[in-house]
Amino acid sequence: MALNLDAIGKKIGPISMTYTLRDVILYALGIGSGFDELSYVYEKDLKVIPTFSIASIVQFFFEASRLANVNMSGVLHGGQELIFHRPIPTSGTMTTEGRITHIYDKKEKGAIIIGESDTYHSNGEMLFTAIFSIFSRFDGGFGGKDAPLRSVSIPEKKADVVVEAHPSPDQPLLYRLSGDVFALHVDPEFARRAGFDRPIMHGLCTLGYACRAIMASICPGRPEMVRRLNCRFTRPLYPGDPIETHIWKTTDSNALWRTINSKTGQIVIDNGEFNYGVHFHKS
User: Fold this and answer.
1) In the annotation, is 185 catalytic?
2) Is 180 a catalytic residue?
3) pLDDT value at residue 280
4) Which of the following is catalytic: 15, 105, 185, 214?
5) Is residue 99 within 8 Å of 115, Cβ to Cβ?
6) Mean pLDDT per segment of 10 residues, for the chain of length 283 residues?
7) Residue 28 falls within a domain, yes or no?
8) The domain spanning residue 151 has which CATH number?
9) CB 3.0–4.6 Å: which of 8, 33, 52, 75 could bond 37 by disulfide?
């Protein structure tokens, strides 16, 4: 099986998904919200956590993987950028279109597939742009160019805020009900074939925990202030391992962050950027 390099530039979509209040609440529960964040889990004055965006269009991720003909046994989420053009309504239909923009060769390490999409609400408004990377561990060595380096200078000083969280050992079983039903996060045999002791956390679930932590520290109860979220997934996390999100506020509208496995001390999400404020990006 070889990567389909002709997939670059080909349109993916439109892919549509209708969602309700229940989907918004289920997602929030899947990333650890509870009574301490009632506005995310109670239909009265309900607000949408911004990372619900990527969970709601996970089918685009799988369609891009299929189009590029990646070996699914080696697939991991490499990185994720989300640019918000307006707050996400609590119900409706989202329609997503996009394409694979690049396929990079990491030689013996694997391949990186970059995809970009725009998502519109059924009210006609553009909601967000998503740029993701798929790290396909078993598909490198096809003679392509390497990916350009992206560097974020995380401060060496102690973080301004550290937020602890304790995902449940069963967290992926709840999170997958929001749409990401990839076997790596539930099937022990599939996980072993992929080189893991047991099913691992969804990287996007850990990202949801991080987003909650950052919002609680910078704009509590105001998800409508989130403008951009960007990060790189660096190591897998096993369900039940505790995490810490370290946050450095750099300006009145920007912060840097990373998420650490408290048990091992390893960084599981790095190069984190968070932009917030009153004005949205123009669409």
Assistant:
1) yes
2) yes
3) 57
4) 185
5) yes
6) 90 96 98 97 97 94 93 90 97 97 92 97 97 91 85 90 98 97 96 95 98 97 96 97 97 96 97 86 51
7) yes
8) 3.10.129.10
9) 33
CA–CA dist 18, 107 (Å, integer): 40
Q: Which domain holds residue 160?
A: 5-276
Which one from 12, 180, 218, 241 is the annotated catalytic residue?
180
Tokens read off for 183 = 């076997």
Joined tokens for residue 151: 């560097």
What distance in Å separates the CA atoms of residue 190 and residue 193, rounded to the nearest whole number? 5
Q: Record the tokens describing residue 80, joined without a space.
A: 């994720």
Phi, psi of 9 (to 5 degrees): 90, -15
Strands 254-261 and 267-276: antiparallel
* Total structural domains within the chain: 1
Segment (H or E) for 30: helix 21-30
Q: What is the pLDDT of residue 141?
A: 87
- Catalytic residue list contains 9: no
Amino acid found at 113: I
- Specify the amino acid at residue 250: T
Domain assignment of residue 35, yes or no:
yes
Q: Hey, what amino acid is at 148?
A: P
Cα 272 to Cα 153: distance, rounded to the nearest angstrom: 10
Q: Considering only CA atoms, which of 103, 72, 92, 87 is closest in space to residue 23?
A: 92
